[in-house]
Amino acid sequence: MGETRHIHMLGICGAGMATLACLLKQKGFDVTGSDHAANPPMSTLLEREGIRLKIGYSPENLNPTPDLAIIGNVIRRDNREAEEVLKRKIPYASMPKALYEFFLREREPIVVAGTHGKTTTTNLVAWVLKHANERPSFLAGGINLNTGGSYELGDGRFFVVEGDEYDSAFFDKSPKFLHYMPKYAIITSIEFDHADIYKDIDEIKAAFRKFVRLMPKDGILVINGDSATVKEVAEGANARVVTYGTASDVDYKITKITPSDGMMRFGITHKGESIDIASWLFGRHNASNIASAVALLKELGIDKGLIVEGIRGFKGVKRRQEVVATINRITLVDDFAHHPTAITETIAAMRMRFPGRKIWGIFEPRSNTTRRKIFTRQLAAALKKADIAIIGDVFNAAYIKPEERLSPQDVADEINREGGEAHFIAPVQEIVRFVSEKAAPGDVILVMSNGTFDNLVERLVAALRTKWQ
């Protein structure tokens, strides 16, 4: 992108933008940025790299004039700072375009895509490649608990990146992952999501079909063979297609998932060969994520022993079934689940990991899809799998038309009608009070949100410590 030295990033505290900023800094660029707010963990990453950050958007943030502006997809066309970029004719790019031009173009991209499991699988593939001394680069939407970061710039041939189907920027409505030009890819799942930009599942499938058709003939496409939708999208792929799952006709078949000695154990069979897996991750969905990684890594020629060792050593990702505290035998777990399928699988994983214990499921409707009344019944069915469900208020409810907005009370009522126990509690301080009064030793409190949930996890930890310690 020309003689670029100073790069300024609008919306720098988003997960993808912050990690890209850190990679650019490591590559030697002078990186600055702006955002409406700065919260951990991304603000911590930026501070660690010495990246200068301005809170609030203003034309003054563009002084001195940068050589390039990278504009995140949270930035609207009428943003004052974005308007100034256009007014001054500063060269600009979207986050995925910049990632490709500065990093992916010169490497072999491994893109992990799908509605669920992208972050965990991206981090796992990158970690095993690192364990196998392939020196990969990677960028993911969550913090790898092994490395303490969500990015790394290596000097090997692979760059592992989480491929999002969300749009790129206000000036580029194409899905992010279309910019990445994958040579190797995993598709974990395809379901309806992102209701603010996709009308229905057919539009989402169309986006994934374009992604599949980008892949070269010498590429490898690893797909979930248990998903009819994923298999349909992969039809006609130029790349070689490899399948995984529990179905009898997949190339890498998952067998006998059991918890044992504090780990999840299962087998994977491939062409008569058996691969025994032990992982600190729990749940059928994580067995599927791991199988996808095994399939791709094996097809890339990585040694089986190194794959198994790498998986066993992988600690997971922050905010993915992360045990943040145990207070008087009450276990508090923080998770990013924000879709009915993810909620269902995460609660099931808690039952596998903590058998016989009471599971609390506390959910914030925060994503652009769950804030709308698209998944009322599905959310009720998912949350009913917890022993006690609490639904918080819709995040930024005023920005959703009343006739389109999810009713958390309707979700709670549906659960209660079906014989479960559910409560709609809007103020976060009331959730803290209710849980701290009712939770008993042995309970597992699972908090699920794709945002901060008004710092609910930290506030629960403080309240429980005050009560029990």
Concise overview:
By secondary structure, this protein is an alpha/beta fold. Helix content is 32%, strand content 24%.
Note down, in words, how this protein is organized.
The chain has 469 residues and is an alpha/beta fold. The protein folds into three domains: 6-94, Rossmann fold, CATH 3.40.50.720; 103-313, Mur-like, catalytic domain (UDP-N-acetylmuramoyl-L-alanine:D-glutamate ligase, 3-Layer(aba) Sandwich), CATH 3.40.1190.10; 322-468, Protein-Tyrosine Phosphatase, Chain A. It has 14 helices and 23 strands. The chain has helices at residues 15-26, 42-48, 80-88, 95-102, 118-131, 201-213, 228-234, 284-299, 304-313, 340-353, 376-383, 408-417, 428-438, 456-468; strands at residues 6-10, 30-35, 52-55, 68-71, 92-94, 108-113, 137-139, 151-152, 158-163, 167-169, 172-175, 184-187, 220-224, 240-245, 252-260, 263-270, 273-279, 322-327, 330-335, 359-363, 388-391, 422-424, 444-448. The chain has a ten-stranded mixed β-sheet with strand order 8-7-9-6-12-13-14-15-16-17, with helices on both faces. Strands 18-19-23-20-21-22 form a six-stranded mixed β-sheet, sandwiched between helices. Strand 12 (184-187), helix 6 (201-213) and strand 13 form a beta-alpha-beta unit. Helix 11 crosses helix 12 and helix 13 (428-438) packs parallel to helix 14 (456-468). The radius of gyration is 22 Å and the shape is globular.
